[in-house]
Amino acid sequence: MSKFRFHISMSLDGYVAGPNMSEDDPLGEGGPQLHEWMVPLRAFKELQGQDADGEVNASTPIVEGMFQNVGATIMGRRMFGPASGPWGSDPWRGWWGEDPPYHHPVFVLTHHAREPLEMEGGTTFHFVTDGIEATLERAREAARGRDVLLLGGADVAQQYLAAGLIDELDLSIVPVLLGAGGRLFENIGGARLALEQVRAVEAPGVTHIKYGVRAG
Amino acid sequence: MSKFRFHISMSLDGYVAGPNMSEDDPLGEGGPQLHEWMVPLRAFKELQGQDADGEVNASTPIVEGMFQNVGATIMGRRMFGPASGPWGSDPWRGWWGEDPPYHHPVFVLTHHAREPLEMEGGTTFHFVTDGIEATLERAREAARGRDVLLLGGADVAQQYLAAGLIDELDLSIVPVLLGAGGRLFENIGGARLALEQVRAVEAPGVTHIKYGVRAG
């Protein structure tokens, strides 16, 4: 069955972004540490269309599995790209380059309507302004029976958690204390979520734990 | 070298006790879920002097290792026992029965001075009123070159983390969201702690991650 899956890297103290996030610094102070485990991996470089050599380690199947059987991705507007600013000649083409690593429809939650943006390699960004449930519906349709992947950021994830809509949570827990920033498990209201640990993988500098989620 | 180690079970959202903790409910609402992974284990029953059968699984070496090479334990006063109340004929003998599972000196951080309490099986509770550093010093001396183990609760652990005194952190991360209660990584001030992931163990219903800690 098609699942709604959520992958994110989290500090040991529960933050998915550091303090003082802004348009030009969506990960916040210290936030890039959350993704350091991924950077040296060949699987990660390949996602970005780079041919460079890279490491193969216990995180490799995690990165490779992230997009397996995924037919559509959902992300928040800041994760797509800055609203404005000195980010190249056309800032609204997002952070992800001309050939983004998705190769399927990507639904961007935003307050500002906009025409779809077709990139190279099969990625089209769709900008959805009518909330998380409508976005998920559209993504499910576009995924045609495959999974839908949620990639963040914190506020979008909190909304989906609060609504009890996520089926599977894959957290990469990083040995870092950020001390402030965007906490994943906050503002999820009285949402009663029952978790079941599906698997845990020890990898260099990170532990990947996958949970099944049921709204209880 | 003698290490100062800290073991605790934590919910995925970072709580080591649930909301509405009190003298008669030191784990708070939902808090007992944090220890459910441990309850069926033979190794845990043996610690409590029970001969009963029990499970052996990937958590077994974690429980067995908890007290390995430990010469003294530190805990907060609530973890020792209630200050007063209907807890048996002598409430001040603590939660741990007449033959506590420690079999070595246990140092209880408290605001109320009291003579040491000698129990069966080699456990003596010492009540220390002059703060976390003096308590650690006394525990180190009593441990005679072996490790010192810190077991909680949250406020005592926060104080030791804030002071940068802990060498090793072993967290048992439980697939539960408590939503409120005592968070481990709070009130640790601007403490700059550098963590290094030492090992992660997948076990039924829990993931055990050990970190080396350096005050940075």
Report on this model:
2 copies of one chain form a homodimer. Chain A is α/β, with parallel strands linked by helices. Chain A has one domain (4-18, 45-215): 3-Layer(aba) Sandwich (Dihydrofolate Reductase, subunit A), CATH 3.40.430.10. The first copy, chain A, has helices spanning 42-47, 60-66, 77-80, 131-143, 154-162; strands at 4-11, 15-17, 70-76, 105-109, 117-118, 124-128, 147-150, 168-174, 182-183, 193-203, 206-215. In chain A, strands 5-6-4-3-7-1-8-11-10 form a 9-stranded mixed sheet. Chain A has a two-stranded antiparallel ribbon with strand order 2-9. In chain A, helix 3 links the parallel strand 3 (70-76) and strand 4. Mean pLDDT of chain A is 91; it is low at 85-89. Chain A binds chain B through residues 12-14, 171, 173, 175-177, 179, 184-185, 188, 190, 193, 195-197, 199-202, 205-207, 209, 211, and chain B through 12-14, 171, 173, 175-177, 179, 184-185, 188, 190, 193, 195-197, 199-202, 205-207, 209, 211.
Top keywords for this entry?
alpha/beta; 5 helices; two-stranded antiparallel ribbon; globular; 11 strands; 216 residues; homodimer
